[in-house]
């Protein structure tokens, strides 16, 4: 549809970037990126109208996002010659605008395009030997100033390397080292740095990315005391194991993996140092408070769990110890537990206790003419505990409990 519309409007339309890369790699990718040689915004407006979607425009960047009725997003960008003035740019007269658009991208494997116009539909546009790099499993930058232009590409290179099991070529690796020697990474804004780190921490192979970062001394750039010691490596490896276990169960809610990894990464830092790291990454005050509170809560919970184990407490007590904690905190606790028994208990909480719902609500209590007040939560808690501990509870006994 996009290609046909392009022809109607007299512009060339291409699918580009990760979408094309993933087709060649035979991997799923639902983010569609289009580049239009012409007015991308106007094209996006007409496309959105035709497909019954919504549109968000960024006129300054000549880009738009079309959100289709099924929720699918299509990014539309404008390729224009005068747009890209790079120190390394080839003579512009020689370049078509799609070539310029691809040239400013991070790696050859992300600089592929596919023509969508009906007469040339599906033709691959490969100016930078991307197909060869995909075949040879290479991550390669397009020009020698790439990391100087944008040091976040260093983390992107590491992320793609580990995700696809590719390898940077020697030149790309050398250019990363040069950029790091120039301290370019230090100049990156916290927000951009965190965004790339966040993307890494939401990948499957997080530990492998951290290992690779450490090989470039990049953890120390985040915080001078961060180093992938054997201890930190084993903590992160346990975090990864626990997260994989949780994801495989398809439990609700979804876990925010980055938060669990962040707790692991900061495990060797005290609160003041952790705060320095969070400030470097431009965390919001809210996130800062969240992490500090979680760390404080963890110490307390560990103590409560030990006591609970010591006195062979009931399952409902276990439930009420863990239930107030955020999921990420519980999974981190599981990863840090040395004893198998403790892990089993946490796993029992997540897979069975947490998923049981009390069917009685405050409304039911009201219907039973119990006058509202703090007693409600006490009654509900007692019912919940009874349910967890396996006591049969029927409506009558609820009344008895309510009268207690
Ligand atoms: P993912 O599968 O992780 O979403 P992606 O390749 O689709 O990977 P995006 O971050 O969505 O990555 O970016 C889309 C495209 O934009 C990339 O394929 C790449 O061509 C280009 N791109 C993104 N970030 C940069 C960057 N920092 N420098 C140059 N090009 C970039």
Characterise this structure.
This is tRNA nucleotidyltransferase (CCA-adding enzyme). It comes from Desulfonatronum thiosulfatophilum. Belongs to the tRNA nucleotidyltransferase/poly(A) polymerase family. The chain is of the alpha+beta class and 404 residues long. It has helices at 2-9, 18-24, 40-51, 97-103, 130-136, 146-149, 152-164, 170-181, 190-201, 206-215, 218-222, 230-248, 257-265, 271-280, 285-310, 315-322, 327-336, 340-353, 362-367, 375-388, 395-403; strands at residues 12-16, 32-37, 54-58, 63-67, 73-78, 113-115, 124-125, 138-139, 167-168. Strand 3 (54-58) and strand 4 form a beta hairpin. It starts with a helix and ends with a helix. The site of adenosine-5'-triphosphate has 12 residues, from helix 7.
List the helices and strands and how they pair.
Blueprint: H1 2-9, E1 12-16, H2 18-24, E2 32-37, H3 40-51, E3 54-58, E4 63-67, E5 73-78, H4 97-103, E6 113-115, E7 124-125, H5 130-136, E8 138-139, H6 146-149, H7 152-164, E9 167-168, H8 170-181, H9 190-201, H10 206-215, H11 218-222, H12 230-248, H13 257-265, H14 271-280, H15 285-310, H16 315-322, H17 327-336, H18 340-353, H19 362-367, H20 375-388, H21 395-403
Parallel strand pairs: 2-5, 8-9
Antiparallel strand pairs: 1-2, 1-6, 3-4, 4-5, 6-7
Helix pairs in contact: 7-9, 7-10, 9-13, 12-13, 12-17, 13-17, 15-16, 16-18, 16-20, 17-18
The chain binds adenosine-5'-triphosphate (ATP).
Adenosine-5'-triphosphate binds next to helix 7.
């Amino acid at each position: 549809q996009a290609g046909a519309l392009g022809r109607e409007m007299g512009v060339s339309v291409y699918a580009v970037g990760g979408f094309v890369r993933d087709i060649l790699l035979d991997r799923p990718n639902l983010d569609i990126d289009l580049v239009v040689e012409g007015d991308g915004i106007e094209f996006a407006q007409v496309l959105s109208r035709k497909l019954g979607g919504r549109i968000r425009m960024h006129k300054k960047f000549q880009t738009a996002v079309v959100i289709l009725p099924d929720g699918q997003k299509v990014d539309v960008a404008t390729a224009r010659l005068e747009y890209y003035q790079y120190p390394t740019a080839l003579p512009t007269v020689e370049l078509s605008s799609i070539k310029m658009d691809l040239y400013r991208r991070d790696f050859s494997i992300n600089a592929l395009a596919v023509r969508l116009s009906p007469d040339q539909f599906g033709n691959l546009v490969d100016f930078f030997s991307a197909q060869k790099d995909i075949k040879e499993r290479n991550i390669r930058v397009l020009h020698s100033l790439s990391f100087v232009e944008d040091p976040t590409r260093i983390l992107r290179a590491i992320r793609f390397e580990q995700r696809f099991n590719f390898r940077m070529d020697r030149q790309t690796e050398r250019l990363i080292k040069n950029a790091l020697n120039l301290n370019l990474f230090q100049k990156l804004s916290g927000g951009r740095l965190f965004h790339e780190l966040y993307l890494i921490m939401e990948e499957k192979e997080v530990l492998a990315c951290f290992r690779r970062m450490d090989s470039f001394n990049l953890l120390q750039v985040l915080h001078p005391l961060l180093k992938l010691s054997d201890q930190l490596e084993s903590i992160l490896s346990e975090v990864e194991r626990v997260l994989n276990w949780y994801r495989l169960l398809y439990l609700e809610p979804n876990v925010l993996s980055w938060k669990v990894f962040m707790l692991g990464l900061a495990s060797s830092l005290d609160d003041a140092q952790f705060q320095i790291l969070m400030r470097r990454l431009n965390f919001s005050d809210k996130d800062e408070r969240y992490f500090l509170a979680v760390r404080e809560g963890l110490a307390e919970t560990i103590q409560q769990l030990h006591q609970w184990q010591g006195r062979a407490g009931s399952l409902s007590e276990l439930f009420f110890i863990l239930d107030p904690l955020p999921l990420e905190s519980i999974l981190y606790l599981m990863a840090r537990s040395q004893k198998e028994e403790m892990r089993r208990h946490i796993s029992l909480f997540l897979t069975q206790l947490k998923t049981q719902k009390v069917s009685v609500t405050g409304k039911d209590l009201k219907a039973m003419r119990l006058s509202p007040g703090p007693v409600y939560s006490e009654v509900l808690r007692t019912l919940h505990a009874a349910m967890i501990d396996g006591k049969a509870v029927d409506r009558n006994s609820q009344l008895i409990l309510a009268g207690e």
